[in-house]
Amino acid sequence: MNPTGNLPKILVTGGAGFIGSHTVVSLVEAGFEPVIVDNFSNSERSVLDGLRGILGRDVTAYEADCNDIGAMEDIFRKESFSGVIHFAAFKAVGESVQQPLKYYRNNIDSLLLLLELMPRYNVPNLVFSSSCTVYGQPEQLPVTEETPRLPAQSPYGNTKAICEDIIRDAVRAQLPVKSIALRYFNPIGAHPSGLIGELPRGVPGNLVPFITQTAAGLRQQLTVFGSDYDTPDGTCVRDFIHVMDLAEAHVQALRKLNETNADAHYDVFNIGTGRGETVLDVINTFERETGVSVNYTIGPRRAGDVEKIYADVAKAPNELGWEASRSLADSLRDAWRWEQKLRQEV
């Protein structure tokens, strides 16, 4: 049953995850009807409660694996989608180094299945969740969409590059799919309501959840990996983007695809702020904005870390009608609000 009538339905694979759940909110606000498919292998069912709290209603959600051909075909048959946003993928860089076959099988096969089902069920539009990891350690900064892709630093990053190539080649072969790949930089923050946010299982692999968990007393100490890089303060530089800005980019990508007349189309966009911030910038901004100190120490460099990367974001405002509007301070305040809510529930 569709509670909102005949709004265009969008399949959101991995829609209970960090970026997926925030995108579900933006889709509803923009007049789309999201349908979540998630196997909850790296997300929690409580996210659906958070979405209900924000939206004031339930969102249709199927518990299924995106590599399960039978389950996915049943969902495509039951629902009438006008587009797909494909988030579902394993994403831990370190784990991908240890278990590369797990990553190649899951991340690539799930895309192949979608590309087979979409034409069969007349679903024209695909927004693909890609990553700035496809650039490796770029020789020049900032990186544009034309910057050559260098060898990925991990099997995870390589799956993103391979998936981009699969979509490009399928479109060149006139598969009737219009697709945009969004190359994310570093998503952080949470919904300002504090009802959904980043929910890592076990020890966080990302900087900001480790900062908030350390500030909340859940972690004893944060280790900053390396202080001798060629950067303003010696720590790595990244382009940190608020997850709600990123969510809104997916809505704009869908709109762009809806406006595209060609039966087959492929394009890529950098989704970042265009600003590089060091790890210490992030810690210092968090402490300033929250008034809470973070116990951290400087450790050795971590294998596989890119020294510095940030986006040239000129293309997205010009061609996608999107640009980031929230600051690093906004992101960290929202991330802390979310962390405080989680601690209250424990």
What does it look like?
The chain has 346 residues and is α/β, with parallel strands linked by helices. It has helices spanning 18-29, 46-55, 69-78, 93-98, 100-120, 155-172, 207-215, 243-259, 279-290, 315-320, 328-345; strands at 9-13, 33-38, 61-63, 81-86, 125-131, 178-184, 186-188, 222-225, 237-238, 240-242, 265-271, 277-278, 296-299. It has a domain at 9-188 and 240-272 and 312-325: NAD(P)-binding Rossmann-like Domain (Rossmann fold), CATH 3.40.50.720. Helix content is 40%, strand content 17%. β1 (9-13), α1 and β2 form a beta-alpha-beta unit. α1 (18-29) packs across α8 (243-259), α5 (100-120) packs parallel to α6 (155-172) and α9 (279-290) packs across α11. It is globular.
What order do the SSEs take from the amino end to the carboxyl end, as H and E?
EHEHEHEHHEHEEHEEEHEEHEHH
For the secondary structure, the number of strands is 13
> First CA to last CA: what distance?
35 Å
Radius of gyration from CA coordinates: 19 Å
CATH superfamily of the domain at 9-188 and 240-272 and 312-325: NAD(P)-binding Rossmann-like Domain
Helical proportion, percent range? 40-55%
From the 3D structure, determine the CATH topology of the domain at 9-188 and 240-272 and 312-325. Rossmann fold
pLDDT averaged over residues: 95
CATH architecture verdict of the domain at 9-188 and 240-272 and 312-325: 3-Layer(aba) Sandwich
